[in-house]
Design brief:
By secondary structure, the protein is an alpha/beta fold. The chain has 2 domains: 184 residues, Alpha-Beta Barrel (TIM Barrel); 118 residues, Lyase, Ornithine Decarboxylase, Chain A, domain 1 (Beta Barrel), CATH 2.40.37. It is 29% helix and 25% strand. It has a 9-stranded mixed beta sheet. The longest helix has 18 residues. The chain binds pyridoxal-5'-phosphate.
Length: 350
């Protein structure tokens, strides 16, 4: 192990706990969303950890993400739902472990005519987010087509993202009616809740929760469940401490410009914006020896922290310890902050 490096540790116990907890209290199966490098946690660590615990179904945004998971060769029973439209029927046929989202009537007809198994198709219904999906006003056409061709499908879903509470209830009601009118038994999986919606609504009709944030134990202000446990820990050791009392500069900057005019000691850690640890973190806090210290400067490869005489090389440091507080301070959301963490940070299963 390289001396004094910063790594992301992933707590397998917490990950599995979150999934088991959600299954139990919500009484649904989980469709873990592992797009964007498993929200920065490292898809190559998260997916094998879940697979070895018995999870077989996953969801990603892009085909290329599914392709990368399949390269891990975990087993032939893995199923990955891809949200984006793929369009290339040969590619779909040649990748039998992926399930496709059907985002329009045209796509449904094309895929059926190309001979793709309808059990591999999950119909996305659009309720006017202008993103993608079969428009709700096309539903009668959809229904006729499904009945006429006697189709049994892999699933049907919609997205309840960022709607106000009453609009959400209406979508759940309309979606439920659509599923029932086509025939509930025609769909293996039914899902519409992302993490926020799991906290805010109960959806009787759903078989699965399609969640990212909650399985990683990440929560935004407002709906906090203390039973969910954060999976990642970004930690390492102080790579060095320098006395800077008589120096005008810290790293590449004037102390006065960094707003640390009286700084006596500066600790260096090996993480920087080249790792996706943005300059926006300057002036935010990190934890060393259970004490908070201020981040003075972030460069491409290193971060400099204003410390006191108690901090020594090799001391344990935690970054993003309290992620909810951190995102408020730097004005980004948790999704952004984590998904930009680069592959240069080693991900280690614990
Ligand atoms: C990203 C995504 C999710 C997961 O969202 P969370 O808020 O992380 O639970 C669910 N569904 C779709 C379609 C998504 O794109």
């Amino acid at each position: 192990m390289v001396i004094n490096s910063i790594r992301m540790f992933l707590d397998q116990k917490n990950l599995l706990h979150n999934i088991e907890y959600l299954k139990k209290v919500k009484n649904k199966d989980i469709l873990p969303v592992v797009k964007a490098n498993a929200y920065g946690h490292g898809v190559n660590v998260i997916v094998p950890a879940l697979y070895s615990a018995g999870q077989r179904e996953f969801a990603v945004a892009r085909y290329v993400e599914a392709e990368n998971i399949l390269k891990l060769n975990l087993g032939n029973d893995i199923r990955i739902l891809v949200f984006e439209s793929i369009g290339d029927m040969e590619l779909i046929k040649n990748t039998p472990n992926i399930d496709i989202a059907i985002n329009s009537m045209t796509e449904l007809k094309e895929a059926i005519e190309a001979g793709i198994d309808s059990k591999r198709m999950q119909i996305k219904i659009d309720f006017g987010f202008g993103r993608n999906g079969v428009f709700h006003y096309e539903v009668s056409e959809l229904k006729d087509y499904i009945i006429k061709n006697n189709l049994y499908l892999g699933g049907i879903f919609t997205h309840l993202f960022a709607v106000n509470y009453r609009d959400g209830l209406k979508i759940i009601e309309d979606f439920t009616e659509i599923v029932n009118s086509i025939g509930r038994e025609r769909f293996e999986k039914i899902h519409l809740q992302n993490s926020a919606a799991v906290m805010n609504y109960n959806c009787e009709i759903a078989t699965h929760l399609r969640v990212g944030m909650l399985i990683y134990g990440l929560q935004e202000v407002g709906y906090y469940d203390p039973n969910l446990k954060q999976v990642f820990s970004l930690e390492g050791q102080i790579a060095g401490v320098r006395e800077v009392e008589n120096s005008k500069y810290v790293a590449y900057e004037l102390k006065s410009d960094l707003d640390i005019p009286d700084c006596k000691y500066i600790a260096k850690v090996k993480i920087g914006y080249g790792d996706g640890f943005l300059k926006k973190n300057e002036k935010s806090k990190c934890i060393i020896n259970n004490k908070e210290f201020k981040i003075a400067e972030v460069t491409m490869d290193n971060t400099f922290i204003e410390v006191d005489e108690s901090v020594k090389e090799g001391d344990k440091i935690y970054l993003y310890r309290d992620i909810t507080k951190e995102v408020n301070f730097i004005g980004m959301n948790i999704y952004e902050l984590l998904t930009i963490l680069s592959p240069r940070i080693p991900r280690v299963l614990k």
